[in-house]
Write a structure and sequence with these properties.
Elements (H helix, E strand, L loop, with lengths): L12 E6 L5 E6 L3 E8 L2 E8 H5 L11
Antiparallel strand pairs: 1-2, 3-4
């Protein structure tokens, strides 16, 4: 499963973890990706969606299948 939202394209972000002694080491932040069933023009399919897109379901961004 890819760690990328198929609706908005949100994915993994990288940066530095900074300790209390100010040492820097690389780390990653993963997007909160969920696998849900969507109705796409009458066809039900499973897609990987971030939780922000799931919350905007009411605004018409996605149509979730039941």
């Amino acid at each position: 499963m890819s760690r990328k939202c198929e609706i908005c394209g949100k994915g993994q972000v990288s940066g530095n973890k900074v300790s209390h002694s100010n040492r820097h080491s690389r780390r990653k932040w993963n997007a909160n990706i969920q696998s849900v069933k969507l109705s796409d023009h009458g066809v039900v399919r499973k897609v990987n969606v971030c939780t922000q897109c799931l919350r905007s379901m009411r605004s018409g961004k996605i149509d979730r299948a039941i």
